[in-house]
Amino acid sequence: MKKNKPGNSSSLPALNRFQAYLILALCCLLLYGNTLQHDFVLDDVYYITAHKQVKKGVSGIKNIFTEGSAKGFNEDTGEQLYRPVTLTSFAIDNSLSNGNPHFFHFVNLLLYILVAFVIFQFLHLIFPAINSWLLLFITALFLTHPIHTEVVANIKSRDELLATLFGIWSLNLLLKKSIEQTGITTYLLSGLLFLLACLSKESAITLVAVLPLAMILLQKAKPSAALIKTLPLAIAAVLFLFIRRIVLSGLEHKAPEPDILLNLLYGAKDTGALIGTRLQLLFVYFKLLLLPYPLSWDYSFSELKIVELFSPVAIISGLLHLSLLVAAIWQIKKKPAFSFAVLFYFISFAATCNFFLNISATIGERFLFLPSLSFAILLVLGIAGILKMNISHPTSIALKNTRAMVIVTILIYGALTIQRNKDWKSNYTLFESGVVSSPNSTRTHAALANELHQQAKVNTSLSEKSAMMQRAVEEYKKSEALYPPNPFTLYNLGVLYQEMGDTLASIAQYRKELSYRPDGRNAGLNLAVLYGYIGKLDSAAYLLKNILQKNPNDRSALTNITAVYLNKKDFEAARVYAEQAIRVAPEDAINFMNMANLEYNLGKKDSADYYFAQYKAAGGQ
Fold first, then answer.
1. Could you count the other beta carbons within 10 Å of the beta carbon of residue 483?
2. Which is nearest to 134 in space by CA: 405, 339, 327, 344?
């Protein structure tokens, strides 16, 4: 770390590497120390607690690298990403801690500290002429920005931490020395680190463009030299895409259907609405950088709605972002640091901002993790410009004033961050905060309702259980009012009514879901059971036949349709389905009981006794 030159009139002492790292580490600990007692929340279930390979610990690592990252949870039924390095870290954590969430949070905090170190080093390498204290202020502002709470406090978002750590580290290796001084070992190591970054999260691939930008714009390197140094990153990126294609091409997975709940953009009916809504999302992200309050785990429909191209928010956003881009290009020679910060924002955000392609989310605070570094750079440079500061050799007064303004910002951001961390304590606290910060989102109300429902199931107090269920019903109804076709809400409210013993309300709810989604298997199955319960056997048989038409080996449908025909006294049809149920699921004891009942009704006592013995052998009570 370069010290301030003797001619520097700054009253602050020279800053060495150890001091800087100590300050940054303490900053991280103060900000996120309160997350160490947090639980698993939100998407942690998909990638940690219910993920087959992660649950195996280190023994599952081989499969983690040879299959889609979501296969361990959803098999081949949903979107498959490929982030084996992130899942490997979860598997190792699981082996070391026996699934203790506090250890996982501890590792996230350590990774955040390491990210702070590589970010500070990155700034020092690309801005060698800027005073070290100013670079420290930039890093501290980056660390304290409340938008990072989702990344650090939510274990699943470790993919952002790892991608940033390995990605920026790889850039640092190549930025340290001139092309003549860079050896083959450095090229190989930087390529390996960049491959690890891409294997942590795909969006890291955008950093390929950052290296030549920094070298040409800030280090004044020749384009040819910058391109040569970029080769190991480009090769690593191509290798990643090749590996990803090989692994995922072997999976016959079914991608999720385009849905407005998955991404608001799928609701756009024409090009004007699509572009207008894309611009609206960019504006929301910009607002979150400037004013990160309130924060929410969800920004989907109808918290945000489709807007037209010439709507006020689309026009303002378009002019704002176009102005930034034009200014960055216009000032590329006079103010290269400003230009780099703006272009870095656009580059690092390109893969996840929803402007160039639709992703599986409308907005996610985690997507601003690395792009927010641009905001910290621009804020400090902006303060320096207002104070007319010489950023290489700031005067004592200028540096003191800058420090005061930065500290005020850090204190505000830090307080918001620490407070926001509390919301990520558990699913309940997160979802309670969600209905406050995003009251018009159908998903926030549905998530809170589901959590209340799950907690009611294990609550031993009858009064508390009843209160939770009633609150869950209210939240489901709010969710349904905001978006009536919401399949999650319609189905789970039906289940809740069913558990509460309100059969008619449950039937109405399942029928409502089937009116929107005629192929809804679970709603159809549950509705058939209820129809059977109230004696509507023909209706029950109709629904179950529809399910079996799509999947003749559906175990639950076979078991239930056997019971329906037994109740109808149609023993010939009951036998057909009972025999098929036993062939498909010989381990399900209930299928043998159904066959025993069938034989008993036909007066075949010996055969009934045989199947009853099979029922007991299969574990029936």
1. 20
2. 405
Nearest Cα to Cα of residue 305 among 269, 275, 277: 277
DSSP per residue, 523-587: HHHHHHHHHHHTT-HHHHHHHHHHHHHH-TT-HHHHHHHHHHHHHTT-HHHHHHHHHHHHHH-TT
User: Looking at this protein, which amino acid is placed at residue 34?
Assistant: N
Q: Are 302 and 483 in contact (CB under 8 A)?
A: yes
274: Cβ contacts below 8 Å, ≥ 6 apart: 265, 268
d(CA 399, CA 581): 78
Is residue 288 within 8 Å of 145, Cβ to Cβ? no
Inter-CA distances, 325 with 320, 342, 356, Å:
9, 7, 16
Question: What residue spans of 387-502 are helical by DSSP H?
Answer: 396-423, 427-437, 442-458, 462-482, 487-500
Q: What's residue 4's pLDDT? A: 41
In terms of C-beta density within 10 A (0-12 exposed, 13-18 middle, 19 or more buried), how is residue 587 classed? exposed
- For the chain, what percentages of helix, strand and coil (3-state, to nearest 5) are there? 70, 0, 30
Question: How far is residue 203's CA from residue 374's CA, in Å, rounded to a whole number?
Answer: 17
**Do 101 and 424 touch, CB atoms closer than 8 A?**
no
Return phi, psi of residue 578, to 5°. -65, -45
Question: Tokens 């502002």 sit at which residue?
Answer: 141
Averaged pLDDT, groups of 10, the chain, 621 residues long: 41 77 96 96 93 93 89 64 95 96 98 98 94 94 97 97 98 87 90 98 96 94 92 97 88 68 93 97 97 95 94 97 96 94 96 92 96 96 88 81 91 96 97 97 97 94 94 97 95 96 96 94 96 94 94 94 93 92 92 91 89 87 76
- CA dist 477 and 467 (Å) reads 15
Helix axes 271-290, 312-330, angle to 10 degrees: 70
Question: Can you tell me the distance from the alpha carbon of 80 to that of 70, in angstroms, rounded to the nearest whole number?
Answer: 6
User: CA-CA distance, 486 to 443, in Å (whole number)?
Assistant: 9
How far is the C-alpha of 580 from the C-alpha of 562, rounded, in Å?
10
pLDDT on residue 316: 98
* pLDDT in the model for residue 618: 85
Nearest to 229 by CA among 243, 240, 241, 219: 219
At 183, list the tokens: 């050896």
Element (H, E) at 589: helix 589-601
Q: How far apart are CA 138 and CA 378, in angstroms?
A: 9
Total Cβ atoms within 10 A of residue 590:
17
Q: Helix 132-144 vs helix 372-386: angle between axes, to the nearest 10 degrees?
A: 130
| CA–CA gap between residue 140 and residue 68 (Å, rounded) | 36
DSSP result, 121-159: HHHHHH-TTS-HHHHHHHHHHHHH-GGGHHHHHSGGGHH
Q: d(Cα 506, Cα 290) in Å, to the nearest integer?
A: 46
Cα-to-chain-centroid distance, residue 320: 28
Q: Is 162 within 8 Å of 86 (Cβ atoms)?
A: yes
The DSSP 8-state label assigned to residue 67 in this structure reads S
CA distance 150 to 159: 12
